[in-house]
């Protein structure tokens, strides 16, 4: 049974940092691309970052480039999103998602933000950036 469980959200002041985690089970982590999406109140869900299967190439939304870092710990079957210099506009529910890509042929710079490519989703964790 595939499961994705996010943790690490909370309230943080502007300029602060948080580390989100996505604990996975039920599949081989390196056979899947794992992405973080977020949805702010009243807005559509958008892609934040992705780490691909295999060697783990990484992609970022322009607005978080240089502030967020995605990483993967294969021994713990967990993917992290390190967020720094947080801004009020980063306030959202953050979701991790998994997309099967054992051969590494699907997820790339023009595909990773397509939500339909991800077959499994977590329940989300809330991040609020406010003073």
Characterise this structure.
- This protein is an all-beta fold and 131 residues long.
- 0% of the residues lie in helices and 47% in strands.
- The strands form 2 sheets. Strands 2, 4, 5, 6, 9, 10 and 11 form a 7-stranded mixed β-sheet that branches. Strands 1-3-8-7 form a 4-stranded antiparallel β-sheet, with no helix packed on it.
- A hairpin with a 6-residue loop joins strand 4 (32-39) and strand 5.
Oligomer: single chain
Mean pLDDT metric: 97
Which structural class should the secondary elements be placed in? mainly beta
Number of strands: 11
| Uncertain residue ranges | none
| Biggest beta-sheet profile | 7 strands, mixed
- Specify the helix fraction band: under 10%
Kindly, what is the distance between the CA atoms of the first and last residues, rounded to a whole number of angstroms? 40 Å
């Amino acid at each position: 049974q595939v499961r994705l469980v996010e943790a690490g959200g909370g309230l943080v002041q502007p300029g602060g940092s948080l580390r989100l985690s996505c604990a996975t089970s039920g599949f081989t982590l390196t056979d899947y691309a794992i992405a973080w999406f977020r949805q702010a109140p009243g807005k559509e869900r958008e892609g934040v970052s992705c780490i691909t299967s295999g060697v783990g190439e990484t992609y970022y939304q322009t607005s978080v480039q240089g502030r967020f870092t995605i990483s993967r710990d294969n021994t713990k079957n967990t993917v992290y999103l390190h967020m720094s210099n947080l801004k009020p506009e980063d306030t959202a529910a953050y979701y991790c998602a998994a997309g099967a890509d054992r051969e590494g042929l699907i997820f790339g710079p023009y595909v990773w933000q397509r939500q339909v490519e991800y077959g499994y989703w977590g329940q989300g964790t809330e991040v609020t950036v406010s003073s």
